[in-house]
Amino acid sequence: MIVxxxxxxxxxxxxxxxxxxxxxxARPEALIIREKDLPEPxxxxxxxxxxxxxxxxxxxxxxxxxxxxxxxxxxPCVHLPLQALLxxxxxxxxxxxxxxxxxxxxxxxxxAEQAGASYLAAGHVFATDCKPGVxxxxxxxxxxxxxxxxxxxxxxxxxxxxxxxxxxxAGAQGVCVMxxxxxxxxxxxRLQMYGAW
Length: 197
What we know:
Elements: E1 3-6, H1 16-26, E2 30-33, H2 40-56, E3 61-64, H3 67-72, E4 77-81, H4 82-87, H5 90-93, E5 98-103, H6 106-114, E6 119-123, H7 138-148, E7 153-156, H8 161-169, E8 174-177, H9 179-182, H10 187-192
Helix pairs in contact: 1-2, 6-7
């Protein structure tokens, strides 16, 4: 199964860069550096260190939100909120080879695809502590999004090994996990529970 890991330094159970190395050793399909609450200069400094670790283990990095930081560090892969994707200048878009977008409805999925997204992260599928009090959208939502677009869709939100197969059956290309990779020291063991990818 295809698993992408999403970082959140506030959830890390140990030193952040030690945790990043544990994730990289587990060899997910990609690592999305999500620390979007940081100002861009701080994000870029942190992302450069994460990128070095991922490069060592040959794990692709996807930057989040900060397109210019990605371009400056030679990373052609960025994940954006939908509105940021829609507002992205063509000059910047042309410098990226992978452009992901977060979507929360079929309409948003279609807009993202039309705007040139390479893949979508659709969520949140299940209840998650990251969105307390916000109802989960469910597998029917995921199935609708997957059926509506021609680009890969990754399920996001409340994903664990026991729920991952249902996401794939709903049409998802793979899953994105945050807590699974940030709240456990044995990341490799956690990701092995998802099966081969």
